[in-house]
Specification:
The complex is a heterodimer. Chain A is mostly beta strands. Chain A has no helices and nine strands. Classes of the chains: A mainly beta, B mainly beta. Chains A and B meet through strand 3, strand 7 and strand 8 of A and strand 5 and strand 10 of B.
Chain lengths: 110, 119
């Protein structure tokens, strides 16, 4: 049972937009920045979004992030087959004094 | 671009020990928090531990406290994870990452090293 809650799976057609939610508490999302990671099959995770909504260099603007209260959202617009991957949210939990990830969301591009 | 290369994984019996290493290059290693994150087979990511720039502060997930120790050698640009009293549930791919979570995200990751705990 992950501290952060994500939907197990989402799907959408190519070209469409999808959002992935990440729900936490005042001890984690409500208290610190959220980052998002993409893990393509058989590869290491890759940073997609930092500080709730900042895209590292090289990340397309199709990827966006937002945070409100104790929840965060990853948006992916103009879906492409290459976006099929597992997506994870992560942040710091002050009550645990530990990092925490969501359980991950598998994106299927139909 | 930063590069991280893990090593030291392998098959170990329950109760045994293993020391993972992570060789860092192409960035100022001594200026960054570092972390270990693991992923059990067919499971999600689990944050394991982190350590600050000079090695004076570290944090651990509850399930490894007292068994795992994170450390670093800034002179050798290396990060370590000493794992003792290993259990079957520690079986996972272990990733070294630059940064942590929260205000300092993990912005670069190694390719991972597999640790299998089995008799």
């Amino acid at each position: 049972q992950s501290v952060l809650t994500q939907p197990p799976s989402v799907s959408a057609a190519p070209g469409q937009k999808v959002t992935i939610s990440c729900s936490g508490s005042r001890y984690n999302i409500g208290n610190d920045f959220v980052s998002w990671y993409q893990q393509l099959p058989g590869t290491a995770p890759k940073l997609l979004i930092s500080e709730n909504n900042k895209r590292p260099s090289g990340i397309p603007d199709r990827f966006s992030g937002s945070k409100s209260g104790t929840s965060a959202t990853l948006g992916i617009a103009g879906l492409q087959p290459g976006d099929e991957a597992d997506y994870y949210c992560g942040t710091w939990d002050v009550s645990l004094s530990a990092g925490v990830f969501g359980g991950g969301t598998k994106l299927t591009v139909l | 671009e930063a590069q991280l290369v893990e090593s030291g994984g392998g098959l170990v019996q329950p109760g045994g020990s293993l020391r993972l290493s992570c060789a860092a290059s192409r960035f100022m290693f001594s200026s960054h928090w570092m972390s270990w994150v693991r992923q059990a087979p067919e499971k999600g990511l689990e944050w394991v531990a982190n350590i600050n720039e000079d090695g004076s502060v570290s944090y651990y997930v509850d399930s490894v406290k007292g068994r795992f120790t994170i450390s670093r050698d800034n002179a050798k640009n290396s990060l370590f994870l000493q794992m003792n009293s290993l259990r079957a549930e520690d079986t996972a791919v272990y990733y070294c990452a630059r940064g942590s979570l929260g205000r300092i995200p993990s912005d670069y990751w190694g390719q991972g090293t597999l640790v299998s705990v089995s008799s």
